[in-house]
Amino acid sequence: MSLNWKEIDLILRELALPGMQIQKIYQSTYDVLALQVYGGTPRGARCILVCVTPRACRIHETFRPVPKSEKPLRFAEFLKSRIINGRIEEAVQLGHDRIIRLTVKRGETSCRIYIRLWSNAANVIVTDPAGLILDAMKRLPKRGETAGFSYGPENAPASGVKQVDDVKQTAGVKQVDSADRSPAREYQVRDLPGSGSFNRRVDDWYREHSGALSLEQLREEIRRTLGKSRIRLEAALERLREKEADYAEGERFREYGDLILANIAKQLDGAVGEGASWLEAERFSPDGDSDGRSPDLVRIELDPWKSPAKNAEGYYEKYRKAKSGLGDVREEIAAGEREIKRLTETEERLLAETNPLKLQALFKKIRKGTPLREERGKEGRKRPGLSFADGDWLILVGRNAGENDELLRRHVKGSDLWLHVRDWGGSYVFIKHRPGKTVPLEILLDAGNLALFYSKGRASGRGDLYYTQVKYLRRAKNGLKGLVIPTQEKNLGIVLDRSRLKKLEESKL
After folding, report:
1. Which residues of 421-430 are buried (b: 16+ CB within 10 A; e: fewer)?
2. Which among 114, 330, 428, 495 is least buried, having the fewest CB atoms inside 10 angstroms?
3. Which domains, from first to last, does the chain contain?
4. pLDDT tens readout for residues 94-104
5. CA-CA distance, 418 to 486, in Å (whole number)?
6. Among candidate residues 310, 299, 300, the one with its CA nearest the CA of residue 274
7. pLDDT tens across 5-30, in order?
8. Strands, E, within 30-122: which ranges?
9. Alpha carbons 323 and 251: distance in angstroms, whole number
10. How far apart are alpha carbons 199 and 93 in whole angstroms?
11. DSSP state letter for 276
12. 3-class SS letters over 257-269
């Protein structure tokens, strides 16, 4: 249940926010914010909850403790730097648009906080008085809702279509009338169960139902996210199975080579020779042709620019590649099937969780690429090589050519960072990308130490590395397993730091 504009209007009138001072700010999750305000009333401080969770968007006073986040969250820290001890000069709803504008003044500076309570596009956006965005609770560059863009819903009517014409003052709270250009749906303040103010009844209703609402929303996001990953894996498996079928027929290439050489030896009327484009020959029949059937003929394509022996060698080479490739492809298929099974088990475990806060924390780990605890360990770990949780960053290390190749094929993406020691054989080290984040220097140095430590240059204690994004790696044609050629690489000098390595050893997953 999200609030309609009439309910928001009633909540604002009951809160009477203008003149109140903002004393504390809490952000329990990425989409829930709480402001502790004080207005000198006998009731003392009050807590105003702002939630932008889809299907549960709301603002109201809460009469229960707000959970604290285990570590400071970005938007709350930004707000603390801007509006702590500031006074609310204005609390206004823009027409029927379910957008609240708070104007907060601290000292000589002021800012506007827009609280948009749209079910599928809710957000909290902070601007300066001129409308320049300072920050947003949900940074959405594609919508122009991030620092540096402009935001002014008063001047851009929404799909109602409403325009701000007049401002009235009622019970210390401003109301903005709007001139609708199209008929608006009639809304009513719902008769929620309970007693007391509408704020209290809304808080009581969400205390009973919000856990289930947020839980179902999280579950839907998990199904969608992991479902997309499963579809990608299944498509890749289908391509691999097609390749497996091609490789499984590789035995015919050896037969073609044998037939070409056999016909050279027989010298059948120049059937195969320089300039020939095709050879028609009888297949080998170990049991003879005793049943009286017509000979089993096969037509073999030849390169007219090559000698018969070179044509035969070409088919033998195709046979060797098919035989070698078949084993690799089957390994990849098995790995893909294991990954799909892991995804299914992970989804089942997440969907079985009934605590929304715990589920959100687990899902955040999955999105960062961190395995759940039950999946760690020698037998349960699906990812090859070593994994390190370096703060909020995940670092992967392949210890040999096989692990390097497996990480490249199945566990990293184009935006992940790749590191390798110059002039020495050794590990591929990857730093998993975090959307909207640049790899800090300390994380880069940690990964560089791991790359040097797990290389043949470890004994020297120092070395040069190069690093680039995975999307700038190109596989070496006919090269060794896992061999890549980097482009757009950058250089990094590393002196082995035992204290870093000790810290990283403690963060090993």
Report:
1. beebebbbbb
2. 495
3. 5-190 (2.30.310.10), 251-313 (no CATH), 386-509 (no CATH)
4. 998 899 999 99
5. 9
6. 310
7. 899 999 999 999 999 999 999 888 78
8. 32-38, 46-51, 58-62, 87-93, 99-106, 109-116
9. 8
10. 16
11. -
12. HHHHHHHHHHCCC
Q: What CA–CA distance (Å, rounded) separates 25 from 33?
A: 7
d(CA 46, CA 15): 9
Nearest to 420 by CA among 433, 407, 430: 430
Q: DSSP for 55-81?
A: T--EEEEE-SPPPPPSS--HHHHHHHH
Closest listed residue to residue 442, CA positions, set 506, 505, 369, 392:
392
Q: Pairing between strand 173-178 and 87-93?
A: parallel
| Beta bridge partner(s), residue 135 | 126
Average pLDDT in the chain: 80
Tokens of 290: 């005793």
Confidence of residue 149 (pLDDT cuts 50, 70, 90): very high
Instruction: Give one DSSP letter per residue of 429-479, joined into a string.
Output: EEE---TT-PPPHHHHHHHHHHHHHTBTTGGGSEEEEEEEEGGGEEEPTT-
Assign 406 to helix, strand or coil.
helix
> Which residue shows structure tokens 């601007």?
127
Residue 341 CA to residue 332 CA, distance in Å, equals 14
Most confident of 105-109, 161-165, 364-368: 105-109
What pLDDT is recorded for position 178?
42
Q: Which has more confidence, 9 or 54?
A: 9
Instruction: Say how far apart CA 65 and CA 47 lie, in whole Å.
Output: 9
Q: How far apart are CA 371 and CA 394, in angstroms?
A: 10
What is the spatial distance between Cα 299 and Cα 283, in angstroms, rounded to a whole number?
A: 10
Straight-line distance from the first to the last Cα atom of the chain, in angstroms, rounded to the nearest whole number: 41
More confident residue, 398 or 423: 398
Contact between residue 309 and residue 280 where contact means Cβ atoms under 8 Å apart:
no
